[in-house]
Amino acid sequence: MEAERQLEEKFRRLPEAGRAENNLRHLTSEPHMAGTEASHRVAEWLCEQYRSYGFEAEIIRYSAWLPQPREVKLELTKPSKRLLATREQPIEGDADTADARAAAGFNAYSPSGEVIAPVVYVNYGLVEDYRVLASLGVSVEGKIAIARYGRSYRGIKAKLAEEHKAAALILYSDPSDDGYAAGDAYPQGPWRPMSGIQRGSVAYTELYPGDPLTSGATASGAQAVAPVDAADLPRIPTMPINAQDAEVILANLRGAHVPRSWQGGLPFTYHAGPGASEVHMKLVMDYQERPMYDVIATLHGTLDDEWVMLGNHHDAWVFGAADPGSGTSALLETARALGELVRGGWKPRRTIVIGAWDGEEPGLIGSTEWVEANRAELQAKAVVYINTDVGVTGRNFVASATPSLQEWVRDVTKDVEDPATGGSVYAAWSESAGRDTQEMRGVARSAPRPDASAPAPLGALGAGSDFCPFFDYAGIPSIDLAFSGDYGVYHSVYDDFHWMKQFGDPAFAYHAALARVLGMMALRFDEADILPFDYPAYAREIARAANELAERGARQADAGASLKAVSDAAATLAASASRAAQALRAVSAAPVDAAKAEEINRDLAGVEQALLAPGGLAGRPWFKHTVFAPGSYAGYAAEVMPGVSEALGRGDGATLRAEAGALAEALARAAARLDDIARLAREAAPSSPVVGH
Ligand SMILES: [Zn+2]
Question: Which residues are catalytic?
Answer without folding.
Answer: 360
